[in-house]
Write a structure and sequence with these properties.
With 408 residues, the protein is of the alpha/beta class. It is 43% helix and 21% strand. The strands form two sheets. Strands 1, 2, 3, 4, 5, 6, 7, 8 and 9 form a nine-stranded mixed beta sheet that branches. It has a six-stranded mixed beta sheet with strand order 14-13-10-11-12-15, with helices on both faces. The longest helix is centred in the N-terminal third of the chain and has 25 residues. It is elongated and about 85 Å long. The two termini are 34 Å apart. Bound molecules: adenosine-5'-triphosphate and magnesium ion (MG).
Length: 408
């Protein structure tokens, strides 16, 4: 018996002639994510990927924790690879189900004495699901289920058959080798990072922008990020928070180059020369222009922001139109139609939420207008922009940008 990891991927299958490119990238990303865990061989077979450790002390749990964050993967299972021989299958199935029952009981025990009593008295419902990929195997799938189910019932105490609402499913896949397992651990799906080009994420310290970046990484985009820092109005701590958020995002896309742009001069100049009600939109336009330049320098083909329609005054359709006019590159706003609670739910799922809600000062909260204009006119905004030496300030900001690489 050999313990291996089975990886399922989905959407890539639809990609026709590009399929090998997607699969190669997925395999590369898988290897990268498992880096440091030990020697492995990664093999593709019939729209599945098998990860076979080449050393005894391989940390399977850790590997699975990393794999579920690899975009393009639908689910993973830790499986036993055994010989395609029915006696072997029966023998190993009993051993695996016994182990699994011990694990279930341990979980129940951890939840308290009441639960343990329940599970030790009642039996655990299960069913067998068999797939016969190897048509030379003499027993057909329904018959495998019937015979193996009966054998398990007889040989593992505490089991009962429950085809409608089982506590667990015992899976058998008969191929050249046979694979057995009890757990399917869901991942995020999507496309492998690196198959959709690169984008520049405008990353603040808030809840929204990390989620926006994650959503585009899920569509296969490699990410770089830009953060605007208004030191000393915003603190070192605010910067550290953004670095922490980029580090969490790097779990999903391996590595992020984060460009930290000094924004104080621009911010103060806008503040000095323009009416308060237009501060945010002017500031946003400057951010977009700088981000577009940094994106072009680094081979990114689009910008990503965490804007959501109507969430704040600067995110009305009119304000977004004026902001958008500052750049030519496509701007992806994946949260545009999401409610705040949906965004928060995703932030929790991807583990950025707890970091995003840590207190910090953002340039938008330091220089905030009491009554921002919700329907700014482009002409008026451009006239105000004319009062600033924006091009020169943008040059200086880019020249003084500090770039940190996050992730291995
Ligand atoms: P977030 O939760 O991402 O901060 P938000 O709802 O608070 O979003 P705003 O603060 O108005 O919205 O910002 C809108 C978008 O502009 C952000 O989602 C982000 O993409 C970008 N942005 C805002 N502030 C910064 C900053 N300091 N550095 C980089 N990008 C920023
Ligand atoms: Mg914000």
């Amino acid at each position: 018996m050999e313990k291996v990891i089975l990886v399922r991927y989905g959407e890539i299958i639809l990609k026709g002639l590009n399929r090998p490119m997607f699969e190669d990238r997925l395999i590369k990303n898988i290897k990268q994510s498992l880096y440091g865990l030990g020697k492995i061989s990664v093999r593709r077979s019939q729209a599945r990927i098998f990860i076979e450790p080449r050393q005894d002390d391989f940390d399977f749990e850790n590997a699975v924790t990393r794999l579920v964050n690899v975009m393009g993967i639908i689910s993973v299972s830790i499986v036993w690879k055994i010989k395609t021989d029915f006696e072997e299958i029966k023998k190993h199935s009993v051993e695996m189900v016994r182990n699994y029952m011990t694990k279930l009981n341990r979980h129940a025990a951890a939840k308290g004495p009441m639960r343990m009593k329940e599970t030790s008295e009642a039996s655990v419902g299960f069913k067998v699901e068999a797939k016969r990929g190897n048509k030379n195997f003499p027993i057909q799938s329904p018959e495998i289920c019937r015979q193996l189910g009966g054998y398990l019932l007889k040989n593992v105490p505490g089991l009962k058959v429950d085809v409608h609402d089982p506590d667990f499913i015992f899976y058998v896949e008969v191929r050249d080798s046979t694979y057995i397992y009890c757990d399917i651990i869901p991942a995020f799906g999507g496309l492998p990072v690196g198959t959709s080009g690169k984008a520049m994420l405008l990353l603040s310290g808030g809840i929204d922008s990390p989620v926006a970046g994650w959503m585009m990484a899920k569509r296969g985009m490699e990410l770089e990020a830009v953060h605007f820092h208004t030191y000393p109005y915003t603190s070192e701590r605010a910067k550290d928070k953004v670095i922490a958020l980029a580090r969490i995002l790097s779990r999903y896309c391996h590595r992020i180059r984060l460009h930290i742009v000094p924004f104080t001069e621009i911010q103060l100049d806008i503040n000095d020369k323009c009416p308060e009600e237009h501060l945010t939109v002017l500031m946003r336009r400057a951010m977009m222009k700088i981000s577009e330049k940094i994106a072009a320098e680094n081979g990114a083909k689009a910008l990503i922001t965490g804007e959501s329609l109507g969430q704040v005054a600067s995110q009305t359709v009119e304000a977004i139109a004026v902001t958008n006019e500052a750049v030519r590159m496509p701007v992806f706003r994946p949260l545009i139609g999401m409610d705040k609670n949906e965004v928060i739910e995703t932030a929790r799922r991807i583990d950025t939420y707890e970091t995003s809600i840590l207190p910090y000062e953002d340039c938008c909260t330091v220089f905030v207008a009491k009554h921002p204009k919700t329907r700014p006119g482009l002409e008026e905004i451009k006239e105000l922009e004319g009062r600033l030496s924006l091009d020169a300030m943008i040059e200086r900001a880019i020249a003084d940008t500090e770039t940190v690489v996050i992730g291995e």
